[in-house]
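Input record (one chain):
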Amino acid sequence: MLGCPRCKGPLTVHEDGPHTEVRCPRCHCAWPVEDGIPRLIPERMTTLPPRD
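The corresponding structure, as predicted from the sequence alone:
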């Protein structure tokens, strides 16, 4: 089980065709998954828009 490096919350896996990422619903961040390995480094993080 993986935890968010920022807030320690749970991460969820999202797949969109060949693109896979892990997302944190608490702090609205995402990281890519490459070759089955989540790249949880700050340089690879993207910010997701908040959900209404």
